[in-house]
């Protein structure tokens, strides 16, 4: 026991609670704070929104150091490379050390708001409303640039 303290489940604790070998993908996604709950991570995997090294995976699929994990969650794709395995949820400063983030930058908030937003309960858009929304979507950021 001088070489590192062991937990009852056989995970080596000498690395700050990080197990050796592999961890479930849903657990790891939750531990590194890519989702708020483990059940959300499992649901994303079941729905096919999680890929490990390009393959769709089930929630119990194992991840290892060096694996590429792609998660589509909350309207955004996250692409991360596993650099450390975790089996317990950790604080944000430690969580970001467990992966290398290669995700594309999120879209600017102003761009998301510029899409035509309808009032809740306004009903089905008329043909005229629909055409106006479609025009705004097609013009998108170009429309705002031309207003200078």
UniProtKB/TrEMBL annotation:
Matching InterPro entries: S4_RNA-bd, S4_RNA-bd_sf
Signal sequence extent: none
Disordered: region residues: 100-148
Keyword RNA-binding in annotation: yes
One protein family per Pfam: S4
RNA-binding is among the record's keywords: yes
Basic and acidic residues composition-biased segments: 129-148
SUPFAM superfamilies from the UniProt entry: Alpha-L RNA-binding motif
Positions of the RNA-binding S4 domain: 23-87
Keywords of the record: RNA-binding
Protein name: RNA-binding S4 domain-containing protein
